[in-house]
Amino acid sequence: MMGCVSSILGVFSKFMRTNMEGEMKSKRIIGIAVTFILFALALIMIIGVDTNWGKTTVKKLTLSSADGDVISALLYKPKSATAENPAPVVMYAHGGNDMLEQGSSYAVELARRGYVVISWDYTGAHNSDIATGTSETAPSKTAGAPTMGAETVYNTLKTYNFVDKSKIVAMGHSMGGQYTMAFSINNQEAVNLQVNLGMNFYGSAKNQDHNFNFVCIIGDAALPSPWNIGLTMRTSVGKRLFSSRVMARVKMPMAVSLGGVEE
In a designed cystine with 182, which of 101, 138, 145, 169 is the match (CB 3.0 to 4.6 A)? Predict the structure, then answer.
């Protein structure tokens, strides 16, 4: 009798173990499947946002300076920019100790609004070479700062037939703003608008004239600058400020100072 009970209990215990193992295996499979689905959705979201859901082409560029040094860059080209319909172009330089990807918020938003954008790792930063010559690192007497790859980017965009070369915007955050400001001072006949983000460098004391439109955007120090510019560009003021139609009509320097989020 005891042997029969023992056999029954053994069969029941084996059944329970098999059932539990099956449930655990099913849960693992479901967990892995959910993880892969979430990963795929996140990847789709990242690619979708970066490319404006297929309306912007993002291309990696490997440029060469006059000294033969590599300048790593990304080109954001909206599909609306064509040889028949050339678009304004923004040259964007990141801030100190950053890399070009740090400016993706600006580039994505500008491309979404119809601008061609070239963002680059300035000379010696991230994937760009440390300078072996002085073509991009020697500051001019008037500018008071080097261009750190801006001249190379400019020479590249001049070859694009989908760019409106009468509407070139030089834009930089913090230290990158110094470099693009230096480029604008050195190329005043080419630059339509200089945008300084979170910095107030205006060239050397010898520079008494800015023959281009100028905007200085200074945001809340408690927020990362991409959030500030994103908030600004979503306001009616920001939309008007960054529209190509208004840009063509600006005739004097401007300063825009943003307050906190509440404002």
Answer: 145
